[in-house]
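Ex. 9. Protein: Apoptosis inducing factor mitochondria associated 5.
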Amino acid sequence: MMEVDIGRHSVLLTRCDGKYSAISNQCSHYGAPLSKGVISGHKVRCPWHGSCFNALTGDLEEFPGIDSLPCHKVKIQNSKVYVSINKKLAASLICAETLRQENYGGRIIMASRDDLLPYDKTRLSKVMNVLSGDTIVLRKKEFFQQYNIEVWLQKEALSVDTEKKTVTFDDGLVQSYDQLLLSTGCRAKGLDVPGRKLDNIKMLETPEDARQIHAASLGCNIVLVGTSFVMEVASYMIDKASSITVVGSSDMPYQNTLGREVGKITMMMLLEKGVRFYMNDHVTEIKGVNGKVKEVVLKSGNVIPADVLIVGIGSMPNSEFLQGTKIQKNSKNYVVVDKYMRTNVPDVFCAGDLASFPLALAKNQLVNIGHWQMAQAQRIAALNMLKKTTELTSVPYYWTVLQGRTIRYAYGEGYTEIVMKGNYEFEERKFLANDEVIAAVGLDYDPVVSAVAERLLSGKVITKKEA
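Predicted structure tokens for Apoptosis inducing factor mitochondria associated 5:
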């Protein structure tokens, strides 16, 4: 495959099974050049975040992209390849959108307690001074009107009756359903310590939270509790806050997701920018003055000055409204589904952060993965609602950005060995179990992680020797 510039347009020219095809070269997620990605059969995988597109049609086959790509006409004449630009964009639909894409003509209702149309939550920790929610919504209201999808905002589900097939909302409305998709997600966990109700204790969940954290942190002492994706907030604040301190309960940041070795590198990156770390520690008390945070007291005895305290210690499922139903939940109150995203109750499906689902790569072990790409991949719930039997086969694909450098991670569990390439600022690491690659992580090293994800998805084994 190769990138071809045609005037103001850039297309990706591929040759599959002797046939030439041309689609847009820009990924529909954040515009990454697909020519830098990986092609496998008829599928092209983005080098940045792992979106996949059909090289012949431009159809979206794997998220986090939300649109298919324009497909252009290709003609061979006198041993030369000619591409004719087609300016029409083909839209892809997710979950509710998928129902319309699959020609479902019935009523579709999306109910949310949010006051904003579905938006890109991954941007909240990267562009925290977002001025308007309209700049991060995934679809404008005109899109939902065009496809006749009803969106009910600021309407929270209080209970479900699976016998009568109804949902009761906070305004008293009782809405009947034929099929129900549960996707209420999770909410942030708070600290359970003295002083937890003081002002300027923040959690990042909404665009308004992001704006408040940005405004409150300028020129101030901020303390962040947690060492996973809240680290993006620490990175964002480096040239804005007076001081930044991170408190974590593990040895290294990202230890539970990316491993100790990778976590050490991310810690070094932020240490070089003046961020202070208190690891293997936790908050025991928050002290305030005039109702606002002033100091954070740690178990170790250290006392940290704090004008703003940002908490990112995990999440809990929004599943309380399912109490009294027969819908199965696990010990942590996540909803259990099968590989078709079906619950144990007929006509009730679940997707997104709320779902505990069997992951094929983990030998169908039930997992909960709170990540945007996986939530989108669970659009198959809509296909199964339409009796178009489809299994979940996606490869989890994470990414995070620290100091302008991107870490990408294609998922694997149970590794016993790590193969490293590059210097102390690793370029690439592969995680092995039984001499087979089960995951890969890369720092500014495209497109190796996408290549591994594609191999994992195809079921092909990558041996230690190949790694």
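Check your answer against this statement. The chain is about 15% helix and 35% strand.
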